[in-house]
Design a protein that fits this description.
Protein name: DUF4387 family protein
Number of helices: 20
Number of strands: 30
Domain Acyclic terpene utilisation N-terminal: 95-277
Distance between the termini: 32 Å
Number of domains: 3
InterPro entries: AtuA_N, DUF4387
Shape: globular
Radius of gyration: 25 Å
Largest sheet: 11 strands, mixed
Organism: Bradyrhizobium vignae
Domain DUF4387: 582-675
């Protein structure tokens, strides 16, 4: 019988999402080798790196971290946090250190060794690499320039070695800057001798918390158990969720542009031969994943992210009569027409704008309630949900605009939208459930602020105007001209909000690989050690990360992410019998950013029969997908079959860089409407083949 050799707890998908304390307590029963959480991401846009601010509310982050530290103090196990403060830059990390000191003081943590690992890089070093032509693109854009780089805040995504070094040096608490999400979990496992392929794959499944469960949510815990036979099991500590072979395999696709290949600083994780299995109705596992030390740019390429300020931003939200929409120019964002995607809604489709607005005596109260409402609306899991990456699309980063109302109260407003027909069917119950959740978890938020949720669609459209400029006077004048342009064509309703000062606009200036091994190993990721006595931290020196090679070197499989598992363009054979709605054939149809310059779609079918029939139809060849999405063929990275979970993955170059000034969907979570509307032709020979499986 296999022996348990390691057990790790993932607190949630990102620090600040929140998770039931009961789930963590259940997870802590029995052996615990580490408690780990990802602290952030680049998903929410460049603003947080450029400004050094946190995406989540201070109290939400503090509450999540407090539970982790409390458990670490009691059990004596490592507590690891990466991408601290959301973006992982120095200011983000310093903010998180402040939160940690508050928590350590309140919990009276004594004589604890803390490691702080920084990931910010001097722009001048990056400019030297740019001049040598040594920065490797990760896709299409962003375009590089010395001026933009010099104005940027730049971080590198650390891999496992800085984290391993800190743990080997005796740190119990690790606060890391920008980190590869998976490395946070893989590092301690690899340090303890666990196979790298298993460690990286386990890390990928854990990094979003319970999102890999059924039903999935990033606002809950997940546990992984590693055994000496080379397998790993995933267990939900919340009895309302379960892990299945299907849910684990499906999550292995999440946010990645290829279904079987994932690229890290140290090499390539390949899941071509991975086995997904169920232990029982609620526990599932993996085995046989491989980690390969391939040729350049791996190992020792570090993904760099750079953010720079574009300027101040003004926003107006103008509600108009539906009869006026025909007069509004096609380039203007109108909820009910083209608020979620630039391509207008087609016959038979619906687009819904969801405008959350709050009012309160204080700015903090108005912002808190608006943040909670939109957070829960975005992530709420409901029966039959197919767009599991997010329910709504945000056009702004940050998504919230705070302002002073005419009645002297403080206001906050968040525009968003969706085209998901499944969401529409559940929308009234979702709103009710979200309000109940907030009432239960944050009752003071509803006591201290009021809210409205306004629906904007073809029958009640809303126009969103956004203007960016570095000069305040020019910005005000330009935005006034844009409002004037609209109001000459349509009369604003009294509920419109004009001339709002939104947070500054930032852009991604860098998303490339640094390949200079000397800079990676000798300059980046400085480690500082502290001896913590409550909120007093005494510096104890530091270290440079220690590096060694990991992974297989004689791997004979395919590592070409343009060819492995590519769906062939093969015309279907047999007699056309009927067509089935894809919505009826698939349990998941989701879109999601895979980095700032790629968008990926996952279609996970209800059965092997439906999966095989969809493949045979040839609907999902790259050429046909390009036509469906209205893209040039070269913008389609690839369409791929995934036999392990009866899934099809589609990856494209993003139409724009995420969170650009013209953005409609920062997270890329609501771009699947054209795919959802597909009907799949079913051929006679395919039915015969599928029935014999």
């Amino acid at each position: 019988m296999a022996k348990l050799i390691y057990r790790v707890v993932s607190a949630c998908g990102a620090l600040g999402y929140g998770y039931p304390k009961e789930s963590l307590e259940n997870a802590l029963r029995g052996r615990v080798d580490a408690i780990i959480c990802d602290g952030g991401s680049m998903d929410a846009g460049p603003y947080y790196l450029g400004t050094g601010t946190e995406y989540f509310e201070h109290e939400a982050v503090k509450a999540d971290f407090r539970h982790m530290v409390e458990a670490g103090k009691r059990l004596g196990c490592p507590v690891i946090l990466g991408s601290s403060g959301m973006a992982g830059g120095n200011r983000n990390l310093d903010w998180m250190i402040g939160v940690a000191k508050e928590v350590f003081g309140e919990l009276e943590v004594r004589d604890a060794k803390v490691a702080v690992i920084r990931s910010e890089l001097d722009p001048e070093i990056v400019i030297q690499e740019f001049r040598k032509g040594a920065l490797r693109p990760t896709g299409v854009g962003p375009e590089l320039s010395e001026e933009a780089l010099r104005e940027s805040t730049i971080v590198g995504q650390m891999g496992i070695h800085p984290l391993i070094t800190a743990l080997e040096d005796g740190a119990q608490y690790v606060l890391a800057g920008r980190s590869c999400d998976v490395a946070l979990f893989a590092s301690d496992m690899i340090r303890r001798g666990i196979d790298a392929g298993l460690a990286y794959h386990v890390g990928h499944i854990l990094e979003c918390g319970a999102l890999a469960c059924d039903p999935g949510s990033p606002s809950d815990c997940l546990v992984a158990e590693i055994y000496d036979d080379g397998s790993a099991l995933f267990v939900s500590p919340n009895p309302a969720r379960r892990c299945t072979a299907y849910s684990i395999a499906a999550h292995s696709l999440y946010e990645e542009s290829h279904p079987q290949l994932q690229f890290y600083p140290e090499g390539v994780l390949t899941m071509e031969k991975t086995e997904f299995f169920s232990r029982n109705s609620g526990v599932a596992g993996i085995r046989n994943s491989k980690f390969v030390r391939a040729g350049k740019p791996w190992p020792w390429s570090i993904k760099l992210e750079g953010s720079r300020r574009l300027g101040a931003r003004k926003v107006s939200l103008i509600f108009v009569d539906p009869s006026d929409v025909a007069n509004i120019p096609a380039d203007v964002l109108v909820y009910g027409r083209n608020g979620v995607q630039a391509k207008p809604v087609q016959d038979g489709q619906r687009e819904l704008g969801i405008i959350v607005e709050t009012a309160a005596e204080t700015q903090e109260a108005a912002v808190l309630l608006a943040s909670l409402l939109t957070h829960y609306l975005f992530h709420y899991g409901y029966p039959g949900r197919k767009a599991t990456a997010g329910n709504i699309a945000y056009p702004l980063s940050p998504n919230l605009v705070s302002f002073r109302r005419d009645d002297e109260l403080f206001g906050a407003i968040v525009p968003s939208g969706t085209r998901d027909p499944v969401f529409f069917d559940h929308y009234p119950k979702i709103k009710e459930a979200v309000i109940n959740l907030i009432q239960h978890e944050f009752p003071d938020a509803l006591k201290n602020a009021t809210f409205t949720i306004t629906d904007a669609d073809a029958a009640s459209p809303a126009i969103l105007l956004r203007t960016v400029d570095r000069d305040p006077q020019r910005l005000a004048a330009q935005h006034a001209l844009e409002i004037d342009r609209i109001t000459k064509l349509a009369k604003p309703k009294s509920t419109s909000r004009l001339h709002l000062d939104a947070p500054d606009a930032y852009e991604w200036s860098l998303y490339h690989l640094l390949q200079n091994e000397n800079v990676v190993k000798n300059v980046m990721f400085d480690i500082s050690y502290f001896r913590a006595d409550g909120d007093s931290w005494l510096a104890e020196g530091g270290a440079r990360p220690r590096y060694d090679d990991i992974g297989e070197t004689n791997y004979s499989g395919n590592l070409d992410d343009r060819m492995l598992s590519l769906i062939a363009d093969a015309p279907p054979s047999g007699v056309l019998l009927k067509s089935n709605r894809l919505l009826d054939m698939a349990v998941v149809i989701r879109s999601k950013d895979a980095g700032i310059n790629r968008l990926t779609f996952d279609i996970i079918f209800t059965s092997a029969e439906n999966y095989e029939a969809a493949l045979h139809s040839n609907v999902f060849s790259s050429c046909n997908i390009a036509k469906l999405l209205g893209l040039p063929r070269e913008r389609v990275v690839g369409t791929f079959f995934v036999d392990t979970c009866n899934a099809i993955k589609i990856s494209i170059h993003r139409p724009n860089i995420s969170a650009s000034a013209d953005e409609r969907d920062v997270f890329g979570a609501q771009q699947q409407a054209a795919i959802e509307s597909l009907s799949i032709p079913i051929y006679g020979t395919m039915l015969a083949k599928a029935s014999s499986l």
